[in-house]
Design goal:
22 strands; binds zinc ion; mainly beta; 4-stranded antiparallel β-sheet; 6-stranded mixed β-sheet
Protein backbone atom coordinates (compact mmCIF):
# COMPACT_ATOMS: atom_id res chain seq x y z
CA UNK A 1 0.00 0.00 0.00
CA UNK A 2 1.29 3.37 -0.95
CA UNK A 3 0.33 6.35 0.99
CA UNK A 4 0.62 9.86 -0.18
CA UNK A 5 1.03 12.34 2.56
CA UNK A 6 0.54 15.91 1.75
CA UNK A 7 1.83 18.79 3.67
CA UNK A 8 -0.45 20.28 6.17
CA UNK A 9 -1.69 23.70 5.42
CA UNK A 10 -3.12 25.59 8.28
CA UNK A 11 -4.08 29.03 8.94
CA UNK A 12 -6.02 30.24 11.77
CA UNK A 13 -7.41 33.55 12.92
CA UNK A 14 -7.31 33.96 16.63
CA UNK A 15 -8.91 37.26 17.43
CA UNK A 16 -10.33 40.48 16.11
CA UNK A 17 -7.62 42.40 17.87
CA UNK A 18 -5.01 40.51 16.01
CA UNK A 19 -6.68 41.47 12.71
CA UNK A 20 -6.58 45.09 13.72
CA UNK A 21 -2.94 44.88 14.50
CA UNK A 22 -1.87 43.10 11.41
CA UNK A 23 -4.15 44.69 8.85
CA UNK A 24 -1.90 47.66 7.96
CA UNK A 25 1.02 45.32 7.65
CA UNK A 26 -0.88 42.97 5.31
CA UNK A 27 -1.93 45.92 3.22
CA UNK A 28 1.68 46.99 2.75
CA UNK A 29 2.76 43.49 1.82
CA UNK A 30 -0.06 43.15 -0.75
CA UNK A 31 0.94 46.47 -2.31
CA UNK A 32 4.55 45.35 -2.56
CA UNK A 33 3.52 42.02 -4.13
CA UNK A 34 1.35 43.78 -6.70
CA UNK A 35 4.22 46.07 -7.47
CA UNK A 36 6.91 43.42 -7.95
CA UNK A 37 4.73 40.64 -9.39
CA UNK A 38 5.64 38.30 -6.59
CA UNK A 39 3.41 35.21 -6.63
CA UNK A 40 4.49 33.43 -3.47
CA UNK A 41 1.01 33.39 -2.10
CA UNK A 42 -0.51 32.19 -5.38
CA UNK A 43 1.94 29.32 -5.53
CA UNK A 44 0.90 28.15 -2.15
CA UNK A 45 -2.78 28.54 -2.73
CA UNK A 46 -4.59 25.34 -3.55
CA UNK A 47 -5.88 25.15 -7.09
CA UNK A 48 -8.56 23.05 -8.64
CA UNK A 49 -7.48 19.63 -9.72
CA UNK A 50 -4.59 19.43 -7.34
CA UNK A 51 -4.83 16.93 -4.59
CA UNK A 52 -3.56 19.39 -2.10
CA UNK A 53 -4.81 20.14 1.37
CA UNK A 54 -7.80 22.30 1.47
CA UNK A 55 -9.68 24.01 4.13
CA UNK A 56 -13.31 23.95 4.90
CA UNK A 57 -14.96 25.98 7.52
CA UNK A 58 -16.34 24.22 10.50
CA UNK A 59 -19.99 23.50 10.19
CA UNK A 60 -21.00 26.07 12.73
CA UNK A 61 -19.43 28.99 11.02
CA UNK A 62 -18.73 30.06 7.49
CA UNK A 63 -15.92 32.32 6.40
CA UNK A 64 -18.29 35.21 6.29
CA UNK A 65 -18.87 34.74 9.98
CA UNK A 66 -15.22 35.22 10.82
CA UNK A 67 -15.51 38.93 11.14
CA UNK A 68 -18.29 38.72 13.69
CA UNK A 69 -16.79 36.15 16.03
CA UNK A 70 -16.56 37.87 19.35
CA UNK A 71 -13.18 38.17 20.90
CA UNK A 72 -14.24 36.13 23.86
CA UNK A 73 -15.35 33.12 21.69
CA UNK A 74 -13.11 30.01 21.77
CA UNK A 75 -10.76 29.48 18.89
CA UNK A 76 -12.53 28.56 15.61
CA UNK A 77 -11.31 25.19 14.24
CA UNK A 78 -10.96 24.68 10.57
CA UNK A 79 -10.45 21.05 9.54
CA UNK A 80 -7.16 20.50 7.89
CA UNK A 81 -7.12 17.09 6.26
CA UNK A 82 -4.35 14.71 5.55
CA UNK A 83 -5.38 12.96 2.36
CA UNK A 84 -4.25 9.39 2.09
CA UNK A 85 -4.81 7.73 -1.24
CA UNK A 86 -5.55 4.01 -0.91
CA UNK A 87 -5.06 2.61 -4.44
CA UNK A 88 -7.47 -0.04 -5.71
CA UNK A 89 -6.39 -3.66 -5.63
CA UNK A 90 -7.60 -6.75 -7.50
CA UNK A 91 -10.64 -7.06 -5.28
CA UNK A 92 -10.75 -4.00 -3.00
CA UNK A 93 -11.86 -0.65 -4.31
CA UNK A 94 -9.45 2.22 -3.89
CA UNK A 95 -10.34 5.49 -2.15
CA UNK A 96 -8.89 8.54 -0.53
CA UNK A 97 -9.01 8.81 3.24
CA UNK A 98 -9.28 12.33 4.57
CA UNK A 99 -8.22 12.68 8.16
CA UNK A 100 -8.05 15.81 10.27
CA UNK A 101 -5.96 16.13 13.36
CA UNK A 102 -9.18 16.61 15.27
CA UNK A 103 -10.16 13.08 14.58
CA UNK A 104 -12.70 13.78 11.86
CA UNK A 105 -12.21 11.56 8.86
CA UNK A 106 -14.07 10.52 5.77
CA UNK A 107 -13.40 8.84 2.48
CA UNK A 108 -13.98 9.81 -1.10
CA UNK A 109 -12.76 9.45 -4.68
CA UNK A 110 -13.62 5.78 -4.75
CA UNK A 111 -11.88 3.89 -7.55
CA UNK A 112 -13.25 0.51 -8.65
CA UNK A 113 -11.06 -2.57 -8.00
CA UNK A 114 -9.03 -3.61 -11.04
CA UNK A 115 -10.05 -7.27 -10.88
CA UNK A 116 -7.53 -10.10 -11.00
CA UNK A 117 -5.17 -10.32 -13.95
CA UNK A 118 -5.36 -14.07 -14.54
CA UNK A 119 -2.61 -16.14 -16.03
CA UNK A 120 -3.57 -18.91 -18.48
CA UNK A 121 -4.91 -22.18 -17.08
CA UNK A 122 -2.42 -24.86 -16.17
CA UNK A 123 -3.72 -28.43 -16.08
CA UNK A 124 -2.81 -29.92 -12.72
CA UNK A 125 -4.26 -33.36 -13.36
CA UNK A 126 -5.68 -34.37 -16.70
CA UNK A 127 -9.16 -35.89 -16.63
CA UNK A 128 -9.58 -39.51 -17.72
CA UNK A 129 -12.69 -41.49 -18.59
CA UNK A 130 -12.80 -42.65 -14.96
CA UNK A 131 -11.70 -39.53 -13.03
CA UNK A 132 -12.24 -35.81 -13.31
CA UNK A 133 -9.14 -33.61 -13.50
CA UNK A 134 -8.31 -30.11 -12.34
CA UNK A 135 -6.67 -26.95 -13.60
CA UNK A 136 -5.32 -23.86 -11.94
CA UNK A 137 -4.54 -20.24 -12.73
CA UNK A 138 -3.13 -17.43 -10.70
CA UNK A 139 -3.40 -13.69 -10.59
CA UNK A 140 -0.21 -12.14 -11.92
CA UNK A 141 -0.76 -9.21 -9.57
CA UNK A 142 -1.77 -10.65 -6.21
CA UNK A 143 -0.83 -14.31 -6.82
CA UNK A 144 -4.27 -15.49 -5.76
CA UNK A 145 -4.84 -18.95 -7.23
CA UNK A 146 -8.05 -20.39 -8.54
CA UNK A 147 -8.75 -24.07 -9.20
CA UNK A 148 -11.38 -25.59 -11.42
CA UNK A 149 -12.36 -29.21 -11.86
CA UNK A 150 -12.34 -30.73 -15.35
CA UNK A 151 -15.15 -33.14 -16.24
CA UNK A 152 -14.19 -36.78 -16.88
CA UNK A 153 -13.67 -37.51 -20.58
CA UNK A 154 -16.63 -38.92 -22.39
CA UNK A 155 -16.17 -42.63 -23.18
CA UNK A 156 -14.64 -43.41 -26.55
CA UNK A 157 -15.35 -46.97 -27.64
CA UNK A 158 -12.25 -49.01 -28.29
CA UNK A 159 -13.32 -52.14 -30.08
CA UNK A 160 -11.61 -55.50 -30.02
CA UNK A 161 -12.20 -57.49 -33.20
CA UNK A 162 -13.14 -61.13 -33.40
CA UNK A 163 -13.19 -62.29 -37.01
CA UNK A 164 -15.14 -65.35 -38.05
CA UNK A 165 -14.00 -66.44 -41.50
CA UNK A 166 -16.59 -67.70 -43.96
CA UNK A 167 -16.75 -71.46 -44.49
CA UNK A 168 -18.11 -73.56 -47.34
CA UNK A 169 -21.61 -73.34 -45.93
CA UNK A 170 -21.64 -70.38 -43.48
CA UNK A 171 -21.18 -66.64 -43.96
CA UNK A 172 -18.26 -64.91 -42.25
CA UNK A 173 -18.56 -61.85 -40.01
CA UNK A 174 -16.66 -59.75 -37.46
CA UNK A 175 -17.69 -59.19 -33.84
CA UNK A 176 -16.67 -55.88 -32.30
CA UNK A 177 -16.43 -55.69 -28.49
CA UNK A 178 -15.71 -52.66 -26.28
CA UNK A 179 -14.75 -52.97 -22.63
CA UNK A 180 -17.86 -50.94 -21.78
CA UNK A 181 -20.03 -53.79 -22.99
CA UNK A 182 -20.97 -52.29 -26.30
CA UNK A 183 -20.74 -54.74 -29.18
CA UNK A 184 -21.93 -55.18 -32.70
CA UNK A 185 -21.53 -57.49 -35.68
CA UNK A 186 -20.41 -56.25 -39.06
CA UNK A 187 -18.31 -57.01 -42.14
CA UNK A 188 -20.37 -59.94 -43.34
CA UNK A 189 -18.74 -62.09 -45.98
CA UNK A 190 -20.53 -64.55 -48.18
CA UNK A 191 -20.15 -68.31 -47.63
CA UNK A 192 -17.62 -69.84 -50.02
CA UNK A 193 -19.49 -72.91 -51.26
CA UNK A 194 -17.78 -76.30 -51.43
CA UNK A 195 -14.68 -76.75 -53.52
CA UNK A 196 -15.72 -80.06 -55.08
CA UNK A 197 -13.35 -82.55 -56.63
CA UNK A 198 -14.36 -84.41 -59.80
CA UNK A 199 -16.90 -87.20 -59.36
CA UNK A 200 -15.34 -90.57 -58.76
CA UNK A 201 -17.30 -93.71 -59.54
CA UNK A 202 -17.37 -96.06 -56.59
CA UNK A 203 -19.64 -98.70 -58.13
CA UNK A 204 -20.43 -98.92 -61.83
CA UNK A 205 -24.16 -99.28 -62.53
CA UNK A 206 -25.42 -102.30 -64.42
CA UNK A 207 -28.75 -103.17 -65.96
CA UNK A 208 -29.59 -104.96 -62.72
CA UNK A 209 -27.98 -102.67 -60.01
CA UNK A 210 -27.63 -98.99 -59.37
CA UNK A 211 -24.13 -97.58 -59.18
CA UNK A 212 -22.58 -94.98 -56.85
CA UNK A 213 -20.26 -92.03 -57.33
CA UNK A 214 -18.62 -89.70 -54.81
CA UNK A 215 -16.90 -86.34 -54.65
CA UNK A 216 -15.06 -84.56 -51.85
CA UNK A 217 -14.66 -80.88 -50.86
CA UNK A 218 -11.01 -79.88 -50.92
CA UNK A 219 -11.63 -77.36 -48.14
CA UNK A 220 -13.88 -79.02 -45.54
CA UNK A 221 -13.53 -82.68 -46.66
CA UNK A 222 -17.31 -82.90 -46.92
CA UNK A 223 -18.29 -85.93 -49.01
CA UNK A 224 -21.20 -86.19 -51.35
CA UNK A 225 -22.54 -89.43 -52.87
CA UNK A 226 -24.86 -89.83 -55.78
CA UNK A 227 -26.69 -92.93 -57.00
CA UNK A 228 -26.10 -93.88 -60.62
CA UNK A 229 -29.25 -95.26 -62.16
CA UNK A 230 -29.37 -98.77 -63.56
CA UNK A 231 -28.28 -99.02 -67.15
CA UNK A 232 -31.11 -99.24 -69.63
CA UNK A 233 -31.00 -102.48 -71.70
CA UNK A 234 -30.02 -101.58 -75.23
CA UNK A 235 -33.09 -100.35 -77.03
CA UNK A 236 -33.57 -103.10 -79.58
CA UNK A 237 -37.33 -103.24 -79.27
CA UNK A 238 -38.15 -102.54 -82.87
CA UNK A 239 -41.41 -102.51 -84.68
CA UNK A 240 -42.75 -105.97 -85.27
CA UNK A 241 -41.72 -106.68 -88.82
CA UNK A 242 -42.22 -109.72 -91.06
CA UNK A 243 -38.83 -110.44 -92.49
CA UNK A 244 -39.67 -113.24 -94.89
CA UNK A 245 -42.81 -115.04 -95.97
CA UNK A 246 -43.84 -116.59 -99.29
CA UNK A 247 -46.95 -114.93 -100.65
CA UNK A 248 -47.89 -117.92 -102.84
CA UNK A 249 -47.61 -121.50 -101.62
CA UNK A 250 -48.78 -124.87 -102.73
CA UNK A 251 -50.48 -127.87 -101.10
CA UNK A 252 -48.15 -130.13 -99.09
CA UNK A 253 -45.52 -127.47 -99.10
CA UNK A 254 -43.66 -126.48 -95.93
CA UNK A 255 -43.67 -122.74 -95.47
CA UNK A 256 -41.75 -120.42 -93.12
CA UNK A 257 -42.50 -117.02 -91.70
CA UNK A 258 -39.78 -115.05 -89.92
CA UNK A 259 -40.34 -111.87 -87.90
CA UNK A 260 -38.10 -109.38 -86.16
CA UNK A 261 -39.46 -108.23 -82.83
CA UNK A 262 -38.18 -107.62 -79.28
CA UNK A 263 -35.78 -110.11 -77.74
CA UNK A 264 -37.37 -112.16 -75.00
CA UNK A 265 -40.91 -111.26 -75.95
CA UNK A 266 -43.37 -114.05 -76.60
CA UNK A 267 -45.07 -113.96 -80.02
CA UNK A 268 -48.21 -115.67 -81.15
CA UNK A 269 -49.09 -116.63 -84.73
CA UNK A 270 -52.61 -117.38 -85.93
CA UNK A 271 -53.26 -118.72 -89.45
CA UNK A 272 -56.88 -118.45 -90.58
CA UNK A 273 -58.13 -120.86 -93.30
CA UNK A 274 -61.69 -120.89 -94.58
CA UNK A 275 -62.31 -123.81 -92.23
CA UNK A 276 -61.03 -121.81 -89.25
CA UNK A 277 -57.83 -121.31 -87.27
CA UNK A 278 -55.08 -123.71 -88.23
CA UNK A 279 -53.99 -126.15 -85.61
CA UNK A 280 -50.94 -127.20 -87.60
CA UNK A 281 -47.81 -128.23 -85.87
CA UNK A 282 -45.19 -125.47 -85.74
CA UNK A 283 -47.64 -122.60 -85.07
CA UNK A 284 -47.04 -122.54 -81.30
CA UNK A 285 -46.08 -119.35 -79.42
CA UNK A 286 -42.38 -118.61 -79.49
CA UNK A 287 -40.04 -116.33 -77.52
CA UNK A 288 -37.91 -114.10 -79.67
CA UNK A 289 -34.20 -114.84 -79.49
CA UNK A 290 -31.53 -112.32 -78.45
CA UNK A 291 -31.77 -110.75 -81.87
CA UNK A 292 -35.55 -110.50 -81.56
CA UNK A 293 -36.06 -113.02 -84.30
CA UNK A 294 -38.73 -115.72 -84.45
CA UNK A 295 -39.34 -118.22 -87.29
CA UNK A 296 -42.40 -120.36 -87.62
CA UNK A 297 -42.42 -123.32 -90.03
CA UNK A 298 -45.53 -125.39 -90.84
CA UNK A 299 -46.88 -127.62 -93.62
CA UNK A 300 -49.79 -126.70 -95.94
CA UNK A 301 -52.28 -129.55 -95.95
CA UNK A 302 -52.88 -131.57 -99.09
CA UNK A 303 -56.57 -130.78 -99.03
CA UNK A 304 -56.28 -127.12 -98.25
CA UNK A 305 -58.69 -125.16 -100.37
CA UNK A 306 -57.17 -122.81 -102.83
CA UNK A 307 -57.52 -119.26 -101.77
CA UNK A 308 -55.93 -116.39 -99.93
CA UNK A 309 -55.60 -116.57 -96.18
CA UNK A 310 -54.79 -114.28 -93.26
CA UNK A 311 -51.91 -114.65 -90.84
CA UNK A 312 -51.87 -112.52 -87.62
CA UNK A 313 -48.67 -112.26 -85.56
CA UNK A 314 -48.93 -110.52 -82.17
CA UNK A 315 -46.76 -109.94 -79.11
CA UNK A 316 -45.19 -107.19 -77.04
CA UNK A 317 -48.29 -105.06 -77.59
CA UNK A 318 -47.90 -105.14 -81.34
CA UNK A 319 -49.49 -107.12 -84.12
CA UNK A 320 -48.96 -107.60 -87.85
CA UNK A 321 -51.27 -109.11 -90.44
CA UNK A 322 -49.99 -110.68 -93.65
CA UNK A 323 -51.68 -112.73 -96.35
CA UNK A 324 -50.69 -115.75 -98.39
CA UNK A 325 -52.33 -117.56 -101.26
CA UNK A 326 -52.59 -121.33 -101.68
CA UNK A 327 -52.50 -122.10 -105.36
ZN1 LIG B 1 -10.46 18.93 12.23
ZN1 LIG C 1 -5.20 -10.43 -8.17
ZN1 LIG D 1 -17.19 -48.50 -25.20
ZN1 LIG E 1 -16.55 -77.64 -48.35
Amino acid sequence: MVEYKNTTFLWGVHSLAQINRTFPLILIVLCLLALFGCTDQNQNAPTEGQNLPFVTPSPETGPSDVAVIPETQPTVHYHAYDATVIPPGCVENGYTLYRCACGEEHTGNEVTAYGHKWSGWTVVSAPTEEKSGSRQRHCTVCLTTESESLDPLSHQHTYRLQITEPTCIEDGYTNYFCSCGSSYVSDHTKQLGHDWSQWETVTEPTCQNEGLRQRKCARCREEESEVLEKLQPPDISGKLTVLSFAEVVHRNETVSLTISGTPGVEYDIDVYYSSGESKAKGLENQIADTQGVVTWTWKIGGKTAFGTYQVVISGGGESQTVYFTVA
